[in-house]
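Input (structure):
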């Protein structure tokens, strides 16, 4: 079900409390979770929510986004206790202006609703998003959206404050990725989870998210492209998951080129060193950034002052499509903190 249709359904459902439908309308009209939606996510640092030590260290790591995990990096017996640790960390640690997210457990466990009620209900405004793992259908995103609305109402957060990041980690999730990406205006990103995905499709590998030398090409190219199309068609940021060989940063740099070149916004980091590599890989170079500026300027003069739509720029022809490509570099570069080199 697409987002706007879903919201129309709520608006005309007579049995719903009036202010609830008004809140939903306001949220969908004014756009949700505006603070974090367009922030960079070149590096997304995973932090186990059960570890005081890792939680304390997380704000010191230079990463665009940090998520505090209640899912697979937390042992079953620690799941409930980790919620309070995560809340305490969000409320008390110095998070600067990075995107701050909590990954809850998937809907097929017994923990999801408790995770949301306890964490969102107590974390305060600094929490930007909830990450929902192993999403298999649009209904799972809708369920999270509805639960978040109730929790926001009860704890005094603005309706729509909390965004959603959805992970695609199963064959079914990939088949339904178009509907998933359109399921809620709260969605900010779609993420590929290579480790769970490899298990789901029964790929014979024991390490997720790394190159397979025996395979002639990129074994995940189809998956990367499929998720990218669904994400971009719905205006989402698109993120690649973890690279599990955490001591081999050269291999990470090489592997991350695949999704960087396709157009992904960033990738998960499991260590501070991985975050440093990814901040570099997913930023345009200064040379690309300057060239994008030059293209825009040359094109503007040609179209506005000389009424020319296609022209030569060095030894290349540029036109309106070149302007669109250049704008993407500027957005990425500005998000990454670049500014134009001074021209002589
Ligand atoms: C991440 O959650 C993965 O399964 O790769
Ligand atoms: Mg996973």
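Output (sequence):
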């Amino acid at each position: 079900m697409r987002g706007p249709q879903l919201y129309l359904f709520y608006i005309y459902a007579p049995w719903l409390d009036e202010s609830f439908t008004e809140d939903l309308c306001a949220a969908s009209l004014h756009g949700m979770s505006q603070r974090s939606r367009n922030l960079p996510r070149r590096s997304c640092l995973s932090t186990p929510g059960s570890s005081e030590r890792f939680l304390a260290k997380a704000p010191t790591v230079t990463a665009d986004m940090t998520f505090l995990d209640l899912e697979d990096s937390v042992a079953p017996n620690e799941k409930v206790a980790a919620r309070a640790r995560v809340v305490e960390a969000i409320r008390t640690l110095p998070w600067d202006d990075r995107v701050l997210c909590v990954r809850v457990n998937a809907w097929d466990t017994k923990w999801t609703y408790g995770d949301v009620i306890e964490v969102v209900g107590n974390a305060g405004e600094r929490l930007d998003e909830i990450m929902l793992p192993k999403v298999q259908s649009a209904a799972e995103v809708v369920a999270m959206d509805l639960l978040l609305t109730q929790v926001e109402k009860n704890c005094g957060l603005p309706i729509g404050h909390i965004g959603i990041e959805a992970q695609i980690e199963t064959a079914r999730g990939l088949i339904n990725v178009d509907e998933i990406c359109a399921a809620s205006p709260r969605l900010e990103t779609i993420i590929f989870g290579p480790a769970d995905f490899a298990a789901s499709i029964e790929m014979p590998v024991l390490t997720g998210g790394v190159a397979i030398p025996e395979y002639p090409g990129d074994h995940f190219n189809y998956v990367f492209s499929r998720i990218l199309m669904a994400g971009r068609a719905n205006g989402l940021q698109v993120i690649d998951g973890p690279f599990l060989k955490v001591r081999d940063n050269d291999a990470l740099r090489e592997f991350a080129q695949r999704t960087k070149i396709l157009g992904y916004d960033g990738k998960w980091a499991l260590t501070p060193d991985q975050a440093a590599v990814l901040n570099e890989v997913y930023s345009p170079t200064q040379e690309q950034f300057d060239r994008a500026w030059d293209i825009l300027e040359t094109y503007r003069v040609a179209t506005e002052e000389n009424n020319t739509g296609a022209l030569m720029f060095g030894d290349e022809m540029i036109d309106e499509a070149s302007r669109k490509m250049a704008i993407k570099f500027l957005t990425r570069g500005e998000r990454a903190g670049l500014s134009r080199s001074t021209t002589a």
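Notes: Residues 72, 133, 169, 193, 195-196 surround magnesium ion (ligand 2) (CB under 6 Å). Residues 3-281 form a domain with the TIM Barrel fold (CATH 3.20.20.60).
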